[in-house]
Amino acid sequence: MFTDKESFKQAYLMKLIEGEGINLNDATHWDQFVALVILVKEKMSYYRAINQNSMSQGKQVYYFSMEFLIGRLLLNYLVNFKIEDLVREGLAELNINLDDLLEQEADPGLGNGGLGRLAACFLDSMAFLGIEGHGNGIRYKYGLFEQKIVAGNQVEVADNWLKNGYPWEIRKQNRAVVVKFKGNIRTEQNEGRLTFYHENYEQVLAVPYDVPILSYENCSYINNLRLWSAETTCGELDLVCFNRGEFNQATSFKSEVEAISYILYPDDSSRAGRELRLKQEYFFVAAGLGSIVRSYKKKGINSLQEFSRRVAVHINDTHPVLCIPELMRILMDEEGMGWDESWNITVNTMSFTNHTIMPEAMEKWPIDLFKGLLPRIYLIIEEIDRRFKESLVRKFLDNEEVVRNTQILKDGYVWMVNLAIIGSSSVNGVAKLHTEILKEEVFKEYNRIFGYKFNNKTNGVNHRRFLLTANPKLSRLITDAIGPSWKEEAGELQKLHGLKNDRSFLEQLAKVKYENKCRLAERVKTKQGIDLDPLSIFDVQVKRIHAYKRQLLNVLKIMHLYNKAINDPESLTTSHTFIFGGKAAPGYHYAKTVIKLINALSQKIEHDPKVNQKLKVVFLENFNVTQGEFIYPAADISEQISTASKEASGTGNMKFMMNGALTLGTLDGANVEINEAVGKDNIFIFGLTAEQVLHYTRYGGMPTPTLERV
Ligand code: 26V
Q1: pLDDT tens digits, residue range 486-535?
Q2: DSSP letters along 679-693, please?
Q3: pLDDT at 236
Q4: Buried b (16+ CB within 10 A) or exposed e, 214-251
Q5: All residues at 6 or more sequence positions from 387 whose CB lies less than 8 Å from its CB, including other chains
Q6: pLDDT tens column, 377-388
Q7: What is the pLDDT of residue 48?
Q8: Which of 231, 365, 419, 458 is 20 to 30 A from residue 427's alpha carbon, by CA?
Q9: What is the per-residue pLDDT across 111-139, written as a single tens digit (0 to 9) for each?
Q10: CA-CA distance, 609 to 278, in Å (whole number)?
Q11: 360 in ligand 1 pocket by Cβ < 6 Å?
């Protein structure tokens, strides 16, 4: 394994020649990128091999999530291995610019926004902390659409991120799992016990692709992100069907099966109960749990009685909530355990995070659709619901309102969040304020029944990605000032307080910000041909476009500034660039109109010589993790202006703050806690409190003066 620049160069050239049969002169940037990835992967395998014996046999944690936004990996892994400089210099001596190779990497868009990025940050954290924590999700052939702006409008382009292959993944054909859909359930009494047989089902082969997760410093823990792809159980050509002359049937079934992992739903704006979505949910749950149980048994522990002591499964939003009835099915139907024992194990294994209080976002499935697709799972849910209602009677809590608000099956639907709360041992919100609203409003009945389950876990972000790696200049400045320990322990950044009046430090800080603004300006010029003035204030709002996030409020503010400046150009004292970025769900008309409006305003101002020296509006195309890494370090002002109570937490707010932007925000989500931490010189709060907004929604009109709860 290479240890210095010379041995790296040797190994790299060998990789190109031996691994890919290409010599340096013929290699494209893509070839050069792939060779480097393979070399880094080998370094990981080496670490994994030498540390195998020291791997603990401790609890295995599985983070089930329909979305993972892992971002590009190469630069992060070079930083984590502390070999970026060595590799950069080594490549330079071979006339290769590392930055060109980094640009080759796809940014897998396997998520919609904050929820998927949070999942990726947790994977990094678990690896760093030495927790054996693995991700379980779907390998969508097409990720979230790529956004182009054409004549001011959003146009969606398919995200074919796998077109050249994805060199980080490893297909594990021998770990494939069969998942069963549809069919019917036959019951039989066997030795006094009711036994369930699933018959006439359709089977789908779930094939895992593993992506290694490596964190900083702690390179002995290389965890795994397992992404499942749907395939038919028969080979490329089903000979039996083919011979019977049913070729069309065979191919149409193939495309029906492959549709399951074909595309990510860009559904930030509606949760229409589509059958394909439910199929996706059960598909990755059944495949994931099947493979967990298999590897658990491989360790030689035959009984599953110990399961919840050795395995934890986390349910990220309600999308993977079928983990609960699926584990019940495995324990009862496959392992022959009774209901009570299976239920104990299941509840103790599962924990659940809620990420929104928006009622439209709560998942529910029409019972008829559900029953047809997952007949055995439905029966189990029916029984969970029946027993839960029975327990309410025992607790004298069976009044109409409590029963109505806590039932899993009602009004012809399966309510997924109710299943999640009843079947998990822990239920958390994602910021103090959000958790408080869950306990006092949205799930108040459950809080009376299961008060002990509710807890808060305020979101966090990976400072090694969004500060150390994304902002190398600031990182160097910080390290020079307080030493390197902040890279492992973010709390060490508090030491910077000591420098708050240090003139030379502050001057260098301003210089770093300016250089980061130049870096962003250069990128925007290359990608979109737009000029940004790095001497102007960069006032940034990047996030999904949504009514509650209030990009429109920001637009109205800019219009106000513009109108004032038309009559009085001196009213603009400093030069200001308003930067927007974010995707609108394709079917969300309002959000798409906001994008159009931003671009129209941008044009209007650009063509008005009275103001265009002082005011500028730009919409950055295709906001994603990679773009964020250039934007956060370059921002002067971070816009976090959602209607209070609606943004469960936010995580962009944290990324901007750690890169030294001032926040303009409302008392919503984690802004409340950021406000407490950074003080009024760094965050500027306006607007109603969450309590006032909730009062307004419920009763109309303005509330009487209120106490701030959080
Ligand atoms: C979905 C929908 C669909 C229907 C219309 C309204 C609506 C609003 C929000 C959502 C997203 C649901 C789940 C989600 O992504 N939540 C986000 O999770 C982040 C990580 O915890 C958190 O930082 C964001 O505040 C939260 O919106």
Answers
A1: 999 999 999 999 999 999 999 999 999 999 999 999 999 999 999 999 99
A2: -TTTEEE-S--HHHH
A3: 55
A4: bbbeebebbbbbbbbbbbbebeeebeebeeeeeeeebe
A5: none
A6: 999 999 999 999
A7: 79
A8: 365
A9: 999 999 999 999 999 999 999 999 999 99
A10: 54
A11: yes
Contact in structure between 198 and 376 (CB atoms under 8 Å): yes
Contact 205, 184 (CB under 8 A): no
Answer whether 361 contacts ligand 1 (Cβ < 6 A).
Answer: yes
> Residues 408, 422: contact at Cβ < 8 Å?
yes
**Ligand 1 near 430 CB (within 6 A):** yes
Cα 283 from Cα 259, distance rounded (Å): 12
Testing ligand 1's pocket by substitution, the residue of 63, 112, 115 carrying the most ligand atoms inside 8 A of its CB is 115
Q: Which residues contact 658 (CB under 8 A, 6 or more apart)?
A: 461, 463, 466, 467, 493, 632
| Tokens coding 387 | 């027993």
pLDDT of 88 above 60: yes
509 touches ligand 1 (CB under 6 Å)? no
CB atoms within 10 A of CB 169: 18
Going from the Cα of 269 to the center of ligand 1, the distance in angstroms, rounded, reads 9
Question: Which entry of 232, 353, 643, 651 is annotated as an active-site residue?
Answer: 651
Q: What would the two tokens of residue 472 be? A: 């190398």
Higher pLDDT, 697 or 331: 331
DSSP 8-state symbol, 110? B
Which residue is listed with tokens 């009062």? 695
Dihedrals phi, psi of 271, to nearest 5 degrees: -115, 50
Instruction: Based on the residue annotation, tell me whether 88 is a catalytic residue of this protein.
Output: no
- Active-site annotation holds for 651: yes
pLDDT digits (tens, 9 = 90+) for 218-248: 676 799 999 999 999 976 555 565 566 666 6
The residue behind tokens 């919503």 is 668
**Ordered DSSP codes for 225-279:** EEEEEEEESS-SS-HHHHHTT-HHHHHHHHHHHHGGGTB----SS-----HHHHH
Amino acid at 210: D
Of 15, 487, 546, 655, which is the active-site residue? Answer: 655
Q: Is the pLDDT of residue 146 over 70?
A: yes
543 part of the active site: yes
Mean pLDDT of the chain: 94
Check pLDDT > 70 for residue 87: yes
Phi–psi pair at 135, nearest 5 degrees: -90, 150
> What pLDDT does 56 receive?
56
By CB neighbour count within 10 A (0-12 exposed, 13-18 middle, 19+ buried), where does 109 fall? Answer: buried
The residue type found at 3 is: T
317 lines ligand 1 (CB under 6 A): yes
The helix (H) or strand (E) run that includes residue 188 is strand 184-190
Q: What share of the chain is helix, strand, coil (3-state, %, to 5)?
A: 50, 15, 30
Structure tokens at 23: 């010599």
Give the CA count within 13 Å in the CB-facing half-sphere of 652.
Answer: 30
State the Rg of the chain over Cα: 27
Closest atom of ligand 1 to 669 CA is 25
Token pair belonging to 44: 């990981």
Q: Which of 264, 265, 356, 459 to mutate to test the pocket of ligand 1 (most atoms within 8 A of CB)?
A: 356
Q: Give the confidence band of 710 by pLDDT, cuts at 50, 70, 90.
A: very low
Q: State yes or no: pLDDT of 250 exceeds 80.
A: no
Q: Which atom of ligand 1 is nearest to the CA of 117?
A: 20
Torsion of CA 371, 373, 376, 377, to 10 degrees: -80
The pLDDT score that the predictor gives to residue 50 is: 75
Angle at 189 between CA 183 and CA 190, to 5 degrees: 110
Q: Please indicate whether residue 648, judged by its CB atom, sits closer than 6 Å to ligand 1.
A: yes
Phi, psi of 576 (to 5 degrees): -130, 130
Q: Is 355 a catalytic residue?
A: yes
